[in-house]
Design the sequence.
């Protein structure tokens, strides 16, 4: 059975844990799935094959993992190529065609806080992470990317002008493939409180 049912109103009901080995003793978080649902990418504390991987300061950072659907649920886990015990890499979002993987990281070289990055599938291998640039990323925190069917990027930020706290923004890709601006979705989507993890 599916992990959750979708009633006529479009919300989710009766959620169930995914079958398989994707839920060990540490935290699992935001996930994204291929269009067929046979592969998921998900966030977890950096824990793989029974071992935690901690930074030099003893911090167990966030990492991204891939799992495939088999006869016994989701298993055959793999680490994302760019996981690194010294930084967090989290909140994956696949493009609808599965060729681009967006994620959040505090890796060095960004604009500050957490930034949004993208890797592209080049012949079965992920390209080097590309920072989405100053139209998207600020000196504060950007997070929770989501790519809609039309290619629009939705994300959260507390660095762009907003209604208060964390707000949700939309960015469209230009003809050159770059994001030129971020549009605050306004009320009632955003409020004076924290608004995040927007999915269509």
Sequence:
């Amino acid at each position: 059975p599916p992990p959750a049912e979708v009633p006529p109103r479009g919300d989710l009901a009766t959620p169930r844990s995914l079958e398989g080995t994707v839920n060990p003793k540490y935290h699992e978080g935001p996930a994204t799935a291929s269009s067929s649902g046979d592969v998921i990418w998900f966030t977890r504390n950096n824990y793989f094959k029974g071992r935690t991987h901690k930074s030099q300061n003893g911090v167990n950072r966030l990492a991204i993992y891939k799992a495939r659907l088999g006869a016994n649920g989701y298993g055959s886990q793999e680490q994302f190529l760019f996981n690194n015990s010294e930084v967090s890499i989290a909140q994956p979002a696949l493009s609808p065609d599965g060729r681009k993987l967006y994620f959040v990281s505090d890796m060095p070289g960004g604009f500050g806080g957490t930034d949004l990055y993208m890797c592209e599938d080049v012949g079965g291998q992920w390209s080097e992470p590309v920072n989405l640039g100053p139209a998207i990323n600020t000196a504060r925190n950007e997070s929770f990317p989501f790519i809609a069917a039309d290619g629009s990027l939705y994300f959260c930020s507390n660095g762009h002008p907003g209604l208060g706290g964390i707000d949700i923004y939309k960015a469209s890709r230009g003809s050159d493939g770059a994001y030129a601006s971020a549009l605050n979705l306004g009320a009632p989507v955003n409020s004076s409180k924290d608004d995040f993890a927007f999915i269509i």
